[in-house]
Write a structure and sequence with these properties.
OB fold (Dihydrolipoamide Acetyltransferase, E2P); 3 helices; about 15% helix
Amino acid sequence: MENETYLTFHLGEDYFAVNVKNVLEVLEQQRITFVPKAPPHILGIINFRGQILPVIDTRFKFGIPGDDKDTKNSVIVYELKGENEVTTIAATADAVKDVIEISPDEIRPIPELGISYDTKYILGAIRREEAFVLVLEIEKVLAPGQKERIILNEFIS
């Protein structure tokens, strides 16, 4: 099996990796416009190449404490391909670390016990530089359900 390329980032003390095939761009120090009555996991909206995108608070989505808005220095713009549509959405990261190659053989399943976030979003874990990196299935993490799509369309239209 061939290696795949992943973008790594951290939230708090935890490291995550997402396949670069889903990443359009990393925006540093991006201004996020607050939107009244948005769902709690939506920080606001950004202008990305003339498109208005909702920005998901990844810490909130994963239940990671420390919601200090100043720590969210990076916004990652993702393109998620569903069965019938392509969705562009943005999500926060405390900082983007680097781009790495991962062999599918390196990815190990993780037990569900002792993890504070939903493991259905996690493909597995790898060990790099004395730390574990959780490999995310970003399509599952950020893909909006039908109810979320309606809410997002209401406040970005």
